[in-house]
Write a structure and sequence with these properties.
alpha/beta, six-stranded mixed sheet, six-stranded parallel sheet, 570 residues, Immunoglobulin-like
């Protein structure tokens, strides 16, 4: 009888929230303040689990229409919080800005077990070795006592949003020792009469959907490239890239081309390549196509470059790497390159196509690179070549030069000349540069990721390349650093990825958020340069003193960015 009565009351409570609420214990006035604290922290500040003191900022985001407003709130409790949830509501200007445009997530942590070699003076040290990075898309978490939890709020501002101030309310709910609680914090989005309709900086992050990455992203369900599951997950990736203003896509051309041979004659089926490219077009991501590398080093790092040519073993096609002067290589590429160019023209993609030759040529192998590039140009004079380069002694065969940031620094006069001659100049970061240079490593202050694109503007680099969008290790949320070579070359924490996999979804990171904001900063500086060129140059120089010297004061940075919006609003 008692059991039946209890069951009836439980079921009644489920259908009548007022009864359930009456049964919950709650905190008396003033009790919660002694247990839980919440502070507004600038989104450019990295909040560690151990952080107990915060330089609190007023939660106001100054934004243009068409970009994103971000907020960060740090929650800390002397007792463990169970079933912590977060949500936002709009309090003013009933236009539905927050509804459907806002995301609230908990910042997660990943470990960096191998400290950055040659670290900068402002490297961030974590006592535990855990650093904030992934933004978790989960409804509830538990928060252990005396542990700090950042809460992230991002609001997409529609391009047609009326200018003005919009007030929102962040609500955090949970329970402590069986008692329910709720905490509210207001925040303000100040929308300026400045509009970003699209970004013009060319941005590429190389990504992989090989067997390993497919398994991670699908939750272990799919590991077959170009299967139905592959195409679904590719669409997920394309949508995420669009969300973060990536507009150049690396397409592994040879791997996606079905090649058949009859004697010395080859036939090419580009249907897989076409579907790959069309996926990004359909998601609105594609601005340009990077055709994957057709060659590589024929040995160790200092060896010469060769080109990949197909061969067949047990009816399966493989690729081998041979000198470009070999008759076999000449025969293959004299058929492949014209067929590719003809197909690109047929699809209407020839004007947006860039072709990689070999990655990172340097003085020891630059001639073999130039020989390959010259041969490809002889077959297709109109094709544009792009590569990450460690040398400029390439007989000017490159059309889009992408030096590493430190080489861009030391050889800046050469790249200025190439721009004057009509070439494009981007820059890239990878395992390097280190020291004081800006980069995307997890151990660096977040502002050093954002101002990468202020460097783009300051020195006229119209694109940015990074090799690691999702080169996840086995457990990216557990360890962000890794060893990549037999010689023990250390991969800095976070260099291999700026996103995280989770059961068919791709999670963002606070670094990816900062990078997107920097891409928009570049666009705003370009807009300002048209109307007020002297002011645009001066504001940028006040942030980027030189290639490797910057003002990283966050408060001062916010003031300069607000100044840009105010100047554009006049």
């Amino acid at each position: 009888m008692r059991y039946s009565l209890f069951l009836c009351m439980t079921l009644l409570a489920c259908f009548n929230p007022s009864i359930l609420k009456a049964q919950q214990k709650t905190f008396a006035d003033g009790q919660l303040e002694d247990i839980v604290s919440i502070a507004s922290v600038d989104p450019l500040e990295k909040v560690f689990k151990e952080t107990a003191f915060f330089q609190e900022t007023e939660p106001i985001a100054d934004v243009a229409r068409g970009e994103h407003a971000s907020f960060q709130f740090a929650l800390r409790s002397t007792r463990t919080i169970r079933h912590l949830s977060a949500g936002v509501l709009q309090l003013s200007r009933n236009t539905g800005l927050l509804k459907g445009n806002s995301f609230v997530g908990f910042v997660g942590y990943t470990h960096v077990g191998r400290i950055l070699p040659n670290p900068p003076r402002d490297r961030l040290g974590s006592p535990s070795g855990f650093y904030p990075d992934p933004i978790l898309d989960t409804d509830f978490i538990d928060l252990h006592n005396f542990t700090t939890q950042p809460v992230w709020v991002t609001v997409a501002i529609p391009a047609e949003q009326p200018p003005g101030d919009y007030t929102g309310l962040l609500t955090l709910k949970g329970s402590i020792d069986g008692k329910a609680f709720s905490i509210n914090r207001r925040f303000t989005i100040r929308v300026y009469p400045v509009t970003i309709t699209r970004t013009s900086l060319w941005v590429t992050n190389w990504f992989w959907l090989d067997k390993s990455r497919l398994l991670q992203l699908s939750g272990g369900r799919d590991s077959v490239p170009f299967s139905d599951g592959y195409w679904k997950l590719l669409k997920v990736a394309a949508r995420k890239m669009k969300e973060y203003d990536q507009n150049v896509i690396l397409a592994p051309l040879l791997e996606m081309t079905k090649i058949s041979a009859a004697g010395n004659s080859f036939r090419f089926d580009f249907s897989v390549f076409d579907r790959f490219v069309q996926t990004f077009i359909d998601e609105g991501t594609l601005g340009r196509i990077e055709g994957g590398h057709i060659g590589g080093r024929m040995g160790d790092w200092s060896s010469q470059f060769g080109v990949f040519v197909p061969y067949w073993s047990q009816d399966t096609m493989h690729l081998k790497n041979i000198p470009v002067g070999d008759a076999e290589a000449q025969q293959f590429y004299r058929q492949f390159i014209p067929a590719l160019v003809s197909h690109l023209k047929e699809k209407g993609w020839d004007k947006i196509y860039l072709q990689h030759i070999c990655d990172e040529p340097e003085p020891g192998n630059e001639k073999s690179y130039a020989d390959i590039a010259g041969f490809i140009k002889s077959l297709a004079p109109g094709i544009k070549l792009i590569d990450a380069v460690h040398s400029h002694g390439l007989n000017n065969t490159v059309d889009v030069w992408v030096p590493q940031l430190d080489f861009f620094h030391t050889d800046y006069q050469f790249y200025k000349q190439r721009k004057e001659a009509g070439d494009e100049c981007w820059f890239y970061t990878c395992l390097s540069p280190r020291g004081e240079y800006a980069n995307r490593f997890i151990e660096l202050p977040l502002i050093k990721t954002r101002i990468l694109h202020w460097i783009n503007f300051r020195y006229g680099a119209t694109g940015y390349l990074h090799w690691g969008w999702n080169y996840w290790n086995d457990h990216p949320t557990e360890e962000a650093s890794g060893i990549i070579t037999e010689s023990g070359n250390i991969m800095p924490g976070g260099d291999a990825f700026i996103t995280y996999p989770e059961q068919g979804r791709i999670l963002s990171s606070i670094r990816l958020e900062a990078m997107r904001d920097g891409i928009v900063d570049y666009e705003l500086l370009k807009m300002l340069a048209v109307r007020h060129p002297d002011e645009a140059g001066e504001i940028c120089r006040e942030v980027v003193y030189d290639f490797d010297r910057y003002d990283t004061d966050i408060r001062g940075f916010r003031m300069k960015r607000r100044q840009i919006l105010e100047l554009l609003s006049r």
